[in-house]
Design brief:
alpha+beta, Pseudouridine synthase, 10-stranded mixed β-sheet, two-stranded antiparallel ribbon, 4 helices
């Protein structure tokens, strides 16, 4: 991304926190086989600070939307404690194949990260796994697809993707948990909004919202979403 492109993705900024609209397809940090990642593009987000902002949490490579960055060490420590105590509210939108068993509910199913020969790693529901809790609400349905809002209450890897598959409604475009190793559609998972207790005494909460990217828009609109403007 160019400096102008990443600056255009800033959803919120104060002296402590930046909320960025991460594009789908871009990893947040370096990893095995990953040469292009978000941390390479953070320099324009200093806004006069001596160091780049840093990740307060992670989003999957193929997940778009709200990503929280801390602008200095103290902010990162406070954000870390907020995540640990579940004080940061995260809202995700997805399009699923099929629908959950009810219009709204909570899934409590422990998740275990496993490696499979020739397939790499994945996350599955397993009694030996870590506690994982996700609330959901169905927002719309059409033609075998379902628009679902998810609110994870824990922060496990691939939590929403694994829980959706466990409920019988895997995410559209999920090659790992969806049963189709070569889906035509991209992963339809978007970090729609975050609410953060403010680190400054002048306000109580920070709220930011990201519009769904174009690649997700057609399926969302089919299921009843009204997308007000382009992202």
């Amino acid at each position: 991304m160019t400096p102008d492109e990443i600056l255009a993705r800033v959803l919120y900024r104060d002296q402590d926190v930046i909320v960025l609209d991460k594009p789908a397809g871009l990893a947040v940090h370096a990893g095995p086989g990953t040469t292009d990642h978000l941390e390479l593009y953070l320099d324009p987000l200093r806004f006069g600070w001596s160091q780049n902002p840093r990740l307060a949490h992670r989003l999957d490579r193929d997940t778009s939307g709200c990503l929280i960055l801390g602008r200095h060490d103290k902010a990162l420590k406070r954000l870390g404690r907020m995540f640990e105590t579940h004080r940061i509210e995260k809202v995700y939108w997805s399009v699923c194949i099929g629908a959950p068993p009810q219009a709204r509910g909570r899934v409590e199913a422990p998740l275990l990260k496993v490696s499979e020969p020739g397939k790499g790693w994945r996350v599955r529901v397993d009694p030996a796994g870590q506690r994982a809790v996700t609330d959901w609400v169905v927002l719309g349905q059409a033609d075998g697809l379902c628009w679902v809002e998810w609110r994870p209450r824990t922060g496990r890897t691939h939590q929403i993707r694994a829980h959706a598959a466990h409920l019988g409604c895997p995410l559209l475009g999920d090659a790992v948990h969806g049963g189709d190793p070569a889906p035509v559609a991209p992963l339809h998972l978007h970090s729609r909004a975050v609410t953060i207790p403010s680190l400054a005494p002048s306000r109580s909460f920070i709220e930011a919202e990201a519009m769904p990217p174009i690649a997700l828009r057609a399926a969302l609109e089919l299921c009843g979403a009204s997308i007000a403007r382009a992202s």
